[in-house]
Target: Autophagy-related protein 18c
Amino acid sequence: MSSTVSTSRGIHSPARLAMHESPDSGASGSFSPLEPDTNDSETELLSLFWNQDNGCFSAGTSNGFRIYNCEPFKETFRRDLKSGGFKIVEMLFRCNILVLVGSGDNSQYPPNKVMIWNDHQSRCIGEFSFRSEVCAVKLRRDRIVVVLEHKIYAYNFMDMKLLHQIETVANPRGLCCLSHHPNTSVLACPGLQRGQVRIEHFGLNVTKLINAHDSHIACFSLTMDGLLLATASNKGTLIRIFNTMDGTHLQEVRRGVDRAEIYSIALSPNVQWLAASSDKGTVHIFSLRVRVLGEDLSAHNSAQGPAMFQQNSSNSPDPLISPNTSANSSSSLSFMRGVLPKYFSSEWSFAQFHLPEDTQFITAFGSQNSVIIVGMDGSFHKCSFDPVNGGEMVQQEYVRFLKTESRPR
Model:
């Protein structure tokens, strides 16, 4: 699989990212400005994506894209065009750089091209072209990662040079995660075998293969520093948490007994909670038995980062497991663990929120024990949970930001 890279020279964003022409660049494509289309009555929602700190989300639509702030909820801007929509709209934190991939009906931006868009200048400042459709794109301040069905390309964001190529098992969902702490550089992606997750610690030049499940991986998520990985298979009953340094299985929680499709997994910044959404219409909150070291990672400055990583990076799982008893529900029959089916001794969810079934929802943690839930039906929910007693979550806010029929991503 080959790619063509085109870039513009001398473009600087507020995040101090610069795009320079690479020696092996291909011919630059021609792009016209996004043209406004004021007709909003037939807009269809195609995709939803969180930004790196989950404070914003982007919505790809059939005629452009929109950006929303979560707390407080607000549409910050939208861009419409007449040539079609975008199936991938990835933000880079809150700066003006976006990465766009067109939908199949986009006559100007096809689904095999990655367009780097400077919204402040309202123009494309670079593109990647591939021979097959792009399944996902992931960003951090120093990397842009493009996911194809069988291969992943990692580029340096400063000069667009190719840094890594990774072969994967068939990955039509485009599963891939990046750490976002400035002092760690971790990538998670499917391995070459069913149920396997490959972890790349780029800063340490370490590769770890984790055999997470017997069946195919359906969803996974990394903590901000990339130290912990949460995974679910296409059975959708169990979610497992691993140490990414040595692959140790730290904890297992149970969404349910019946098969389900897991849409998203979110880990709270303080690593105390895990949220999961599925096609069963319930968002589950689980208590994590992971020791919390220091403050919220998202608030750490660069001086604090290395110390925390060194403290956490032991090959022993002991520093990662809390001695406290989990707050999740478990069966009183756990003393018969060797006799009864495994789910009798599983850790069940601590808190729940119910939504319409068969609608895709993605989740993220908000402030003060709250969870943000965004749906492909164009709905925004903010819910709070009791960190002591758990139970049914309370809806604090509901907004219908786009009235559209639910459509899977």
